[in-house]
Design brief:
The protein is mostly beta strands. The protein has two helices and 15 strands. The longest helix is centred in the middle third of the chain and has 6 residues. The chain is elongated. It starts with a strand and ends with a strand.
Length: 178
């Protein structure tokens, strides 16, 4: 019988995934759903961890000892109050990998192989209309907040999630293409 379970990033858990034994040395880490507590020394080998995502199932039984042993550089704890959603549908812009970001000719950033529209970085190139390419599934929170003028987005039917205040306020309009 296997006594531990290891996730794809190298995090080590008890076989039932209820206790986190070791956190891998990565910049961002999501504690697996179903985990309820962490080992007192789970973070001992962490040197680059910046953001920790804590599932709604985490009870924090060992929280004081665990979080006291974390590297001081960890600045963000994202505590979920419901099950995680797939990264591609989450409108929180912290979920993308910076190394895999692409920029189109209008200065709009995309991640996850073009499935996540992150933000418009050069609104002067967009003008009054912007056509979101087919295959985009998520528009992140505040994606077009830098666009000061009234902007009309033409979105494909592939869109599954639209973030909060994508225009920064109510100054924009979204048109779904047929």
């Amino acid at each position: 019988m296997k006594s531990v379970w290891t996730d794809e990033f190298g995090g080590v858990y008890t076989a039932d995934k209820k206790r986190l034994l070791k956190v891998p040395d990565v910049k961002r880490y999501r504690i697996a759903e179903g985990c309820e507590e962490t080992d007192e020394h789970a973070f001992d080998d962490c040197k680059v961890l910046e953001i920790l995502y804590v599932p709604y199932t985490f009870s924090g039984k060992a929280a004081d000892d665990t979080f006291n042993s974390m590297p001081s550089e960890v600045g963000n704890f994202c505590v979920w109050d419901r099950p995680y959603v797939e990264e591609v549908y989450d409108t929180n812009d912290l979920w993308y990998d910076e190394d895999l970001v692409e920029k189109d000719e209008y200065g709009v950033l995309y991640a996850n192989e073009g499935r996540r529209l992150i933000m418009a970085t050069q609104p002067e190139l967009i003008g009054k209309d912007y056509v979101i390419p087919d295959g985009v599934v998520t528009i992140c929170d505040g994606a077009f907040a830098a666009c000061n003028d009234y902007t009309v987005l033409s979105a494909p039917r592939s869109i599954k999630a639209i973030g909060d205040y994508i225009f920064g306020d109510e100054s924009g309009k979204i048109v779904i293409r047929a």
